[in-house]
Amino acid sequence: MKRRDDVSVARAQEFFDARANGSLVIYTEDGGADDGDHADGDAEMNDGNEGQHTQQKKRSVAPIEAWHPVRLGFDYKQAGKLIAALDAEKGVEQNPLLDGDEGAGMDVGDGNGEEDAAALEALGNEESTAEKLDERLCYLMRVHGVDYYRRCQEMNPVTFLERVTMTSAFSKRDPKPETPVATVAENPYGVRWSASLDANVKRRIAEGDPQVKKLATSDIEAKLEEWIKSCVVKHDDQRFGCTLSTKLFIAEEFVIKHIRTKQAHHVEDMHERLLDEQYKKNVIEFLKYEENRKASRKGKKKFGGIMMMQVPGAGPEGGFVQVPVATAGGAKMIQGMQRYTDLDAAAPPETRVVIDYGDI
């Protein structure tokens, strides 16, 4: 993570320099292409949508309604807030991409909804906003490894160091249509997409780097502090010592200072031990996660069984045949048998296929 942060700071400066001298390339040939890495997640979001949106969603991770001026202005402001938070975490200073008002509220529906919507629409109607937004999205990917339009998905440090370069593409919108676009609220997919994106961005800003949580930095520091205090030995009101040396001090604070400076190698050893314990804990949790994930996937595999079907033309008391169930989607069809019978069609009852679901 230290290497990742150092690379982010260096790359941010490289980004700023390229932007200043005009050599920065925002759009690459594969920019906006759906590489399939997140296809499963997008598929879940797309289930049950109208057919008119199907082709569009395959082309882009953002609905065409992302071009609406209000949404465009909102994404510009929200991306700025996200950049400010990530820069602060990694030590990037004086970012020329930011406007300096990233701390101000500009959320539609938060009290002054109409005023915010009007301001965002005016911002979105400016010709330069779309280009400046793409510049921010490009910065998020190449400097911080965050793909904004993919619902703020963030790479882990190792993946970021191995895959992200100054030419990496970021997910972006489809080309702007010639006709005015509707609001996101008019597209069911767009509503789910924007709700997921906005929630992820707000959570990332509020909760901080998820990788830091895995390090349990605050817990380790608390345990280390507790260990240092446990090394202090009080002989009387004006005589204090420690378990790491034979020196005496007149106050506890001087003992703690002595431990941190003169006994730093012991402190470092304890810190490494605490890190090892956290690492083992993370490994165990990861293995449990993998086990549960495999068990969940196994439960979704194709199941077997027998389904009873009545042979067409047979009487009500007999004529049933066993049909093996091959997939969760239904029975394996017998060669020559039609795929299904429309029970709503006008046909004699004896020609209908009856399924006894109690025997599945």
Computed CA radius of gyration, to the nearest angstrom:
30 Å
Global morphology: extended
Tell me the count of domains.
3
**Strand arrangement in the largest pleated sheet:** 8-7-6-9
Instruction: Give the number of DSSP strands.
Output: 9
Strand content: 5-15%
Poorly predicted spans: 31-57, 327-334
Q: How are helices and strands ordered from N to C?
A: HHHHHHEEHHHHEEEHHEEEE
Largest sheet: 4 strands, antiparallel
What's the tally of helices? 12
Helix content: 40-55%
Class by alpha and beta content: alpha+beta
Q: What is the residue-mean pLDDT, rounded to a whole number?
A: 81
How far is it from the N-terminal to the C-terminal residue, by CA?
53 Å
State the oligomer.
Answer: single chain
Notes on the structure:
This protein is of the alpha+beta class. The protein folds into three domains: 2-213, no CATH class; 228-299, no CATH class; 306-359, no CATH class. The protein has twelve helices and nine strands. A hairpin with a 2-residue loop joins strand 7 and strand 8. Mean pLDDT is 81; it is low at 31-57 and 327-334.
